[in-house]
Design a protein that fits this description.
The complex is a heterodimer of chains A (about 240) and B (about 300). Chain A is mainly β and about 240 residues long. Chain A has 2 helices and 11 strands, in the order αββββαβββββββ. The termini of chain A are far apart. With about 300 residues, chain B is α/β, with parallel strands linked by helices. In chain B, α2 packs parallel to α3 and α4 crosses α5. Chain B is globular, with a radius of gyration of 21 Å. Classes of the chains: A mainly beta (about 240), B alpha/beta (about 300). At the A-B interface, α1 and α2 of A face α1, α6 and α7 of B.
């Protein structure tokens, strides 16, 4: 079956999907103190058929957070894997924490962000013709049940404002969602996270060149692992 | 400070490795072979039970060309500095200028062995068939690239003209093969091309990117290849036949085949929308006998009541 059973050919397209939810797939859960910063790395991506089996693509991202106030920190991210393939992807955003956890009542994090992408292949002309900007807002609810581990759930909302795709057809999907569930584990100044994600659970995942793994041929499962270290602050 | 230095070092390393890798080779899925087994091939095949059905159909008179292994003629062609494999399925290795030859450009899986039952079906429809393995596929040397596909297709067309007696040519592209097929159909003016067929075609590389991501992501992010069949089809001036399944799980009909169909402005356009058809099983879903008749009717210009037209 052309393309469909291809072990290799699916990865090129899975990378596309990853672009949309790539850099900040793992979001900072606990608040930073004012002036405190955090540097992290995450690895993972959507499950796609590779070498005859479904695996999460090992897509590497770097992230940085800085505490502005008790309720606000800013974040930035860089897609490393994308850069290796000549795709620049930066994201910048804010994490606003209107509430903190109290017993079973979760703390909330509201995170508006923008993802900026462009060709950065050194051998191609840098024209900004292929620049894209995708706004994103995610809402996270987290619980502080134990000091060293915290479960959370999140809903990522990705927006594509383009009316026409690169191939000239109408862009049908302007609002893409990705619910996620994860655990944040704290060990001194280090945080470790594992997060499962389900991209676009409302959209059929067949007929898209890539062969994705999702429940009932809808959506795409994703898995991410992350580690970050805090700097500064009074911990 | 030490952390800052590490960060700077990391950024420098990233700067120097930016764009070091290409995703282009990931588009192709060839299987190398030193030689071909054809009928004796036991691996996965497209339309694998076609040969048995053809044998049964031969008795019913639907099949115009009766097959024997002496109809297989193997060739090596030169393309882009490499040698590529070609197989001609024909009663004679030299055709008359009034004969019709289907030049078949296969999809992205395996090699000629995988598509052999399909080649047999096309032969059964009453015409000689020439098929090639692209560079990197089967016993063809080299690595597969977009320009390589074009070069390989040109080599096949040139071979048909110069070595096979310059017969009438029907270009038939399936899936990935729609890329070299449409390139030939839109540019090749030297051969005696009379008709053009696309089965489960790719709209463009940009469509692969956009469909795969659900987003408007520029093609250039993922590939340096630029093929756009829906643009090239505008230059095709021969009758055109398009087949696509409603249940294609690889190349969605509405974003791939349909834009090509919509842009075709040649003299006669026909299509068959195969209800329940997937990406590689259209002859199976249609029925081998009916598929053979579809090809025969289109090439001979017979109005088939199941064809939809512009």
């Amino acid at each position: 079956m052309p393309l469909k059973t291809s072990a290799k050919s699916t990865s090129i397209l899975a990378l596309c999907l990853m672009l949309s939810f790539g850099c900040s797939a793992i979001r900072r859960i606990t608040p930073l103190e004012v002036g405190e910063s955090s540097v992290g790395v995450s690895c993972g991506g959507p499950f796609t058929q590779l070498f005859g089996m479904y695996v999460p693509l090992p897509l590497l991202s770097l992230g940085y957070n800085y505490g502005m106030s008790k309720t606000i920190d800013i974040e930035a991210g860089l897609g490393v894997t994308q850069a290796l393939f000549g795709i620049g992807e930066l994201n910048a955003g804010v994490n606003y924490r209107p509430t903190v956890p109290a017993g079973w009542i979760p703390g909330l994090i509201i995170s508006p962000a923008v993802y900026l992408t462009e060709d950065i292949d050194p051998i191609s002309e840098f024209t900004m013709k292929n620049f894209r900007c995708y706004p994103d807002i995610s809402i996270t609810a987290w619980w502080n049940r134990e000091k060293w581990w915290r479960p959370y759930i999140a809903l990522e909302n990705w927006f594509d404002l383009c009316s026409t795709r690169d191939d000239g057809l109408a862009q049908q999907e302007h609002w893409l969602i990705a619910p996620a569930v994860g655990i944040d584990m704290e060990c001194g100044k280090w945080h470790y996270q594992i997060q499962g994600e389900l991209y676009t659970p409302n959209l059929w995942n067949r007929g898209r060149g890539a062969h994705y793994l999702g429940p009932g041929n809808y959506g795409v499962f994703g898995l991410f692992l992350g580690a970050s270290r805090d700097f500064g602050g009074g911990k | 400070m030490k952390t800052a230095q590490r960060l700077i070092l990391c950024c420098v390393v990233i700067f120097f490795v930016i764009g070091c890798f290409s995703l282009d080779p990931f588009l192709f899925n060839p299987t190398k072979e030193n030689s071909y087994s054809f009928d004796a091939y036991t691996g996965q095949k497209s339309c694998s039970n076609a040969p048995d059905s053809i044998a049964a159909l031969e008795k019913s008179g639907i099949v115009e060309n009766k097959y024997s292994t002496s109809d297989i003629h193997l060739y090596s062609l030169s393309s882009g500095g490499n040698t590529i494999a070609a197989v001609l399925l024909a009663a004679d290795s030299i055709l008359k200028p009034t004969d019709t030859l289907i030049v078949f450009f296969h999809g992205n899986t395996g090699n000629l062995d995988y598509y052999w039952p399909r080649i047999r079906l096309l032969f059964a429809s009453g015409f000689s068939v020439l098929a090639i393995d692209y560079q990197g596929f089967g016993s063809s040397a080299g690595a597969t690239t977009e320009q390589g596909l074009f070069s390989d297709a040109r080599a096949a067309m040139k071979f048909a003209k110069e070595k096979l007696g310059n017969p009438h040519v029907v270009i038939y592209g399936m899936s990935l093969g729609s890329i070299p097929a449409t390139e030939m159909a839109s540019n090749d003016i030297d051969s005696q091309m009379i008709k053009f067929v696309l089965e489960v075609p790719i709209h463009s590389i940009a469509t692969l990117t956009d469909d795969g991501s659900y987003l408007d992501i520029p093609r250039s992010y993922l590939s340096t290849y630029t093929s756009d069949n829906s643009e090239k089809i505008k230059k095709v001036k021969v009758p055109f036949f398009w087949l696509h399944g409603t249940n294609d799980e690889t190349l969605e009909r509405s974003t791939n085949g349909l834009p090509i169909w919509n842009n075709y402005s040649g003299p006669e356009g026909y299509y068959v929308e195969v209800e329940g058809g997937g990406h590689s099983n259209l002859p199976t879903v249609i029925g081998f006998g009916r598929y053979i008749k579809f090809v025969n009717d289109f090439v001979r210009g017979v109005k088939n009541p199941l064809f939809l037209s512009k």
